[in-house]
């Protein structure tokens, strides 16, 4: 497809119905190589080709006789081969699609068609039959009436457009107004919309059925169980299709540029789609012509669409789907388009997704476009190796590269795909390279991958790659403080950090230095679930528990906590781990040692809030770390010293919930915190008198609180109830309770679901080894398996790991 044709398609979306129709008819065909211009077609006569002008005065009956001589009634390979299909909507030549055509039926089509027929009748459009009864004229569509009436079919064959119903059917037949109304209602609705309050009403209907030959209505009236309107409408559509196949009552010839002609009924075309409704009902020249020439459409495509309009059924396969989809859109056949879109959606694969995405972009098909984009992002690594990947526009490629959802084994795959795309047409694409390179997340690459980028000839030899090379060299030198990026969400793994557990001899509790990641989640027989854990790396000394973790630009920050169980063991040290470089870095200490505190990443900074300082004094201080200058600073303090609280970011704002104050009171409070102005109160939590040792995370557009303990009349107890906070409504809503206690657990969020891991039970004193996941769509806690061992006072996060460290 040329650039001009693409622009015309995009402009076409902005035009009115009539303008689009005029544009489509005026545009030259890019599909048929034998196109010969407006108003002419090629026909063979006596073995020689002659150019025949289309005369509007030519009678339809004569054209129908010639129909079999100049058109094919089957979908053949010849029909497919006569059409040149735009490469913008075709899979590449190496596509291994099945060539089998499958029949698809749109169940709602019949109802939709008859709804349109009733609308045309109510608006007085295309009414071609006048029924005279007792001085009154009753207008109808003769084809619709013929679908239920044998007498009306005779009128259709003889083209008797005006009928006097007096003595129709012979002597003794007297049609009344009530009887005629019932017949017309049955023809358009498939129902008998009358209440028989008297036997006379039923007799009048049966008399009308006998006079007009409406046997089906008579059977419905006599049946004990009433027939459904849908079944009768479907039967009427089958009759209409039979009449069309016999060429009975066809009042228009649809002609394609190759000269093939297809008789049809105006009323079915107008009811089938908005394009033909405008063509035949808006006073355009074609509304009065007996032969209408359609440009830019192959004969087999028109034949398939006509088959659909008379049946609601399409035969679809990879050899015809692109042409039928475009034609259904151009002719505004919503039902046919629905079947085509469902086919593309349900049969999407690596070969078709980019073409589907381009088609959806061209015609503004949001649902299909989202599905194609999601598929492309999920299978980017395989798709980027295909030849048609190089045909992507710069705008579309940039949009894909900047998505967090893009799935690849390593970010270097994204870089290689981009280089391949540019190399295909350097003369035109090289100018776009700087902007596209900004969407490659170089900090996610390992040193060997960065060295590959640094050695890329295309970057080294062209000015467009200099900025990217500077970033790569800084990363290789270990300077990451001013270079940040978000991880690709689908490539992240669940990581456990530190915590403590009972030792192997069950003698005492011991803090640990282990980092584990979930290699995969496995489902066994029945309800059995397991998690395959793999060791990732060891924390630098000392071990940590009751600490916090934050992830900023896919770099893991591990803050505070304690190394053992004495009051002097509380830490103020901070370390940082880079998965891409796979190395640790010690950062400046916080101003205060703290455990049982909260931490969040906000606007490129790491915040720590409150906590326990020495098992006697709690903190109200807030500090934040700025990676750019490697410095800690103080922010506005909290309203009161607390520990055991939770904090989360929602819509770019910091929220703090619960915790214990210095009097060991468990708080139900929720604060909105601003580093400049401090705390402001929001609606307190509703479950229990307070909560501490819990987790809080943003899930969707809500804050979800789970786990911890609550105050009782005497002492404390496990809190299993969960709740969610709605920021706009400033209220809490109950959620399903946790299946097991989780005091001081770890928690993290991925793909809109909350993971809660480990912790302990206040009531029993035992550690909780389980991992649960909450999906807000299902409103259900799903048990995924166990931890590597029962850890408490641990932390968790999501990290993107290099492929060589994922096992």
Automatic annotation (TrEMBL):
Q: Which residues form a coiled coil?
A: none
User: Known InterPro entries for this protein?
Assistant: BACK, BTB/POZ_dom, Kelch-typ_b-propeller, Kelch_1, SKP1/BTB/POZ_sf
User: Which keywords does this chain's UniProt record carry?
Assistant: Kelch repeat, Repeat
Instruction: Map out region (Disordered) in residue numbers.
Output: 29-55
Q: Where is the BTB domain?
A: 127-196, 250-318
Q: Tell me which Pfam families the record gives.
A: BACK, BTB, BTB_KLHL33, Kelch_1, Kelch_KLHDC2_KLHL20_DRC7
Q: Which PANTHER family match?
A: KELCH-LIKE PROTEIN 33, LD33804P
What protein name does the entry list?
A: BTB domain-containing protein
Species name: Pangasianodon hypophthalmus (Striped catfish)
Q: What lineage does UniProt assign to this protein's organism?
A: Eukaryota, Metazoa, Chordata, Craniata, Vertebrata
């Amino acid at each position: 497809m040329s650039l001009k044709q693409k622009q015309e398609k995009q402009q076409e979306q902005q035009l009115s119905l009539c303008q689009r129709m005029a544009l489509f008819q005026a545009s030259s065909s890019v599909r048929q190589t034998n196109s010969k211009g407006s108003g002419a077609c090629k026909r063979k006569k006596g073995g020689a080709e002659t150019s025949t002008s289309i005369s509007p005065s030519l009678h339809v009956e004569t054209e129908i006789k010639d129909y079999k001589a100049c058109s094919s009634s089957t979908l053949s390979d010849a029909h497919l081969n006569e059409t040149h299909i735009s490469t913008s909507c075709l899979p590449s030549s190496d596509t291994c699609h099945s060539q089998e055509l499958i029949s698809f039926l749109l169940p709602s089509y019949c109802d939709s068609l008859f709804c349109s027929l009733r609308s045309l009748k109510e608006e007085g459009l295309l009414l071609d039959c006048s029924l005279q009864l007792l001085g009154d004229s009753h207008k109808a569509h003769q084809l619709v009436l013929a679908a239920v009436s044998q007498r009306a079919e005779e009128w259709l064959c003889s083209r008797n457009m005006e009928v006097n119903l007096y003595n129709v059917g012979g002597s003794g037949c007297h049609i009344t107004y009530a009887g005629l109304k019932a017949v017309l209602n049955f023809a358009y609705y498939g129902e008998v919309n009358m209440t028989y309050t008297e036997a006379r009403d039923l007799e009048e209907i049966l008399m009308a059925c006998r006079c007009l030959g409406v046997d089906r209505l008579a059977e419905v009236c006599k049946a004990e169980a009433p027939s459904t309107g849908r079944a009768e409408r479907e039967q009427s559509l089958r009759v209409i299709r039979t009449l069309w196949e016999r060429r009975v009552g066809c009042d228009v010839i649809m002609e394609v540029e190759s000269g093939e002609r297809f008789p049809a009924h105006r009323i079915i075309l107008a009811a089938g789609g908005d394009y033909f409704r405008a063509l035949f009902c808006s006073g355009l020249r074609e509304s009065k012509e007996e032969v209408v020439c359609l440009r830019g459409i192959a004969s087999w495509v028109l034949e398939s669409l006509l088959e659909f309009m008379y049946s609601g059924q399409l035969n679809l396969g990879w050899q015809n789907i692109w042409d039928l989809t475009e034609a259904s859109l151009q002719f505004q056949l919503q039902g046919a388009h629905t079947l085509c879109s469902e086919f593309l959606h349900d049969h999407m694969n690596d070969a078709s997704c980019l073409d589907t995405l381009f088609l959806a972009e061209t015609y503004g098909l949001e649902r299909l476009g989202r599905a194609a984009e999601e598929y492309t992002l999920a299978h980017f690594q395989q798709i980027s190796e295909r030849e048609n990947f190089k045909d992507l526009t710069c705008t579309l490629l940039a949009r894909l590269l900047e998505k967090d959802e893009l799935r690849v084994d390593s970010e270097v795959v994204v870089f290689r795909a981009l280089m391949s795309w540019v190399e295909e047409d350097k003369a035109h694409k090289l100018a776009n390279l700087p902007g596209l390179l900004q969407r490659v997340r170089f900090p996610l690459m390992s040193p060997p991958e960065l060295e590959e980028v640094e050695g890329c000839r295309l970057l080294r030899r062209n000015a467009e790659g200099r900025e990217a090379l500077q970033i790569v060299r800084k990363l290789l030198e270990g300077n990451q403080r001013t270079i940040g990026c978000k991880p690709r969400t689908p490539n992240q793994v669940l990581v456990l950090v530190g915590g403590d557990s009972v030792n192997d001899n069950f003698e005492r509790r011991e803090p640990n230095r282990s980092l584990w990641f979930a290699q995969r989640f496995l489902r066994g027989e029945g309800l059995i679930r397991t998690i395959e854990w793999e060791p990732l790396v060891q924390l630098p000394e000392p071990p940590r528990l009751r600490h916090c973790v934050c992830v900023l630009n896919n770099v893991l920050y591990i803050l505070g906590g304690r190394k053992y169980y004495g009051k002097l063991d509380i830490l103020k040290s901070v370390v940082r781990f880079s998965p891409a470089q796979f190395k640790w870095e010690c950062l400046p200490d916080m101003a205060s040692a703290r455990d049982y505190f909260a931490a969040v990443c906000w606007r490129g900074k790491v915040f720590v809030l409150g906590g326990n300082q020495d098992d006697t004094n709690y903190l109200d201080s807030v500090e934040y770390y700025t990676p750019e200058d490697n410095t800690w600073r103080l922010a506005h303090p909290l309203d009161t010293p607390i520990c055991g609280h939770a904090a989360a970011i929602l819509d770019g704002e910091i929220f703090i919930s619960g915790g214990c104050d210095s009097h060991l009171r468990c708080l139900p409070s929720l604060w909105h915190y601003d580093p400049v102005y401090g705390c402001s109160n929001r609606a307190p939590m509703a479950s229990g008198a307070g909560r501490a040792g819990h987790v809080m995370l943003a899930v969707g557009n809500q804050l979800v609180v789970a786990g911890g303990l609550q105050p009782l009349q005497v002492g404390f107890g496990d809190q299993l109830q969960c709740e969610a906070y709605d920021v706009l409504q400033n209220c809490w809503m109950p959620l399903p309770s946790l299946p097991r206690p989780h005091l001081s657990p770890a928690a993290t969020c991925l793909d809109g679901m909350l993971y809660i891991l480990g912790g302990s039970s206040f009531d029993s004193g035992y550690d909780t080894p389980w991992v649960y996941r909450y999906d807000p769509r299902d409103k259900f806690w799903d048990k995924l398996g166990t931890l590597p061992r029962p850890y408490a006072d641990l932390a968790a996060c999501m990290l993107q790991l290099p492929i060589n460290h994922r096992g």
